[in-house]
Amino acid sequence: MRQTRAVEVGTGLFVLLGMGALFFLTTQTTGGDDFSADETYTVEARFENIGSLRNRAPVAMSGVTIGRVTNVTFDPVTLEAVVEFVIDSQFSQIPDDSDASILTSGILGSQYIGLQAGGSDIYLENGSEVMFTQSAIVLENLIGKFLVNAGSKDDD
Amino acid sequence: MDDNSENLIEIHDLKYSRGPRAIFDGLNLIIKRGEVTALMGPSGTGKTTLLRLITRQLIPEHGTIHVCGVDIARLSQAELYQLRQRFGMLFQNGALLTDISVFENVAFPLREHTKLTNRLIRHVVLTKLHAVGLRGAADMMPSELSGGMARRVALARAMVMDPDILIYDEPFVGLDPISMGVIVRLVRRMNDALGITSIIVSHDVEEISVVADRSLLISDGKVAASGSPDELRLAKSELVRQFMHGMADGPVAFHFQAPDYDKQLLGRDSE
Amino acid sequence: MTKLFRDVYDSGVEFVRTFGAFQLFFMQLLRHTPAMLIRRFDLVVKQVFNTGALSLVIIMVSGLFVGGVLGLQGYSNLARFNAEDSIGVFAAFGLIKELGPVITALLFAGRAGTSLASEIGLMKATDQLSAMEMMAVNPVQRVLVPRFLGGVIAMPFLAAVFSMIGLFGTHLVAVELLSVDVGAFWQQMQMTVDLEDVNEGIFKSLVFGVAASLIAVWEGYNAIPTAEGVGRATTRTVVITAIAVLVFDFMITAFML
Known about the structure:
The complex is a heterotrimer of chains A (156), B (271) and C (257). Chain A is α/β, with parallel strands linked by helices and 156 residues long. Chain A has helices at 2-28, 139-155, and strands at residues 40-47, 58-61, 64-75, 80-88, 99-104, 111-116, 129-130, 132-134.
């Protein structure tokens, strides 16, 4: 019976350590805030090109994450990308003429939506659409433009 | 389900093969209640297989086995486990569970099948251990026991549920004379004191003749001879004589099947 | 020529038969699981200790060094793109999604799997399983199910510990040794890694746990009851578990992408 107690204690410690590790992984390595449905409102934005923006990409303002992308679809009529994202409800005073751009974090980083504040007195609310958008910068187009520019300069 | 007839176990026309080898080919056998019956035979005749068939660890291809009047092939899993609780079995090496103590080994069937309190279990276990003379070894681990002691503990465990039938699979193998004498005495005493039936599988002719009421000699998948040990010793059959008197050659050949001796030796030389 | 075809056919049939028997065995274990969890939880606890707690040392040491290597390799590779700050992301993805579950499973097979297989095989060889059957105790229920459950429960915890210690290992190498900014290390990780990724890792380790424990218990139970047979069962456990883990890993990763 004495042996069983040591076994029980050992197992208990093991399980606690394991749970601690799981807890660590889920909280310290992930984004933490998951923006559950009650505390957010949904906003839409249309882009010509969303680059590699995907679901769950962050939405940031002034560099601070205030929301997440929830849905990316394609409008077959207007031939635009339609991005739905949620914003934390505590940020309810974002002007409705704000600018939504698709930016890249770092060089190899993933893409996210950056919101630049506008000046309007009307604020974004559930179901609003962000009217001013900037598509993602596609590297090939950039290089292409650069080469064309460099080429045309030579012609002068 | 119970039958108080004289025959505890009846086997009719049993056939069982392992692969191409027919181990039993129409075996008929009766074990009488209250007796010590010995199953003897040359090595490899399937004595242990027979035990497994009786306890339904194996299923016969043909024939019936009745235990206490019940055809064991017809039993459900639950009924089978009920039946097995009336058997006590002593395995060749004791087969004690190596990760628990001697006490816990003997207590194992009680803990699994009864709801006795710890005090009662302790009482029963120590009593059984005392009967085999090992009450003082209760806290030892199986790895610390000698072969003879392990076998005695296994006997205590086999008896702890007060079974009706005790089966011993080669209980005398590898024991020194003293331990052997102890086991022999215990087998006889248990059988008579508790009024149970004992089946011993063994090929130790000497010890069997001391302890058994009846002996059955099994050979070639059938019962070659049966009777009291004395009757068998005086038997006229060649096979029985070879076995009982330990003669090297006879119906059970000395030479294993081989090609012609001259041909094999000379054939190789001339290459 | 026809003999070759016959042999291939026979081994094919044999393979399918063994696979079917394996599935039935799995079902049998599952069937007895609720009863064992409720009535003999102490047996399960003992097995969680045997497979989990006793494997901690090798898991933690391996985790630390794998994490460290990720730090070194990752740094040198990312430095070519000037992206050293992403080393946290690199290590986190590598550990949580792949290396944690897979390496833990392989180490588990080597340490706990072999221990289970040889223990059960030995019990079979010394007639202990037969003795239990004779005492009307179902050895599948009493011996196999707790060991199976012990492995399944222990595995996700072991994988999580591996990943956690691994990340600390990467931290040590990257931040202390290679002067990566500690803030960037953790913050980039937190921004990029999702709960989904952690869940994928946990799901994998659960699947691997079931596979590894099932294979170990099966090999032990079906071992030939001789010294050689038990030895063979032990090696087979490691080999088959390794293959199964890697195949499942591929399938799950492809499915979750």
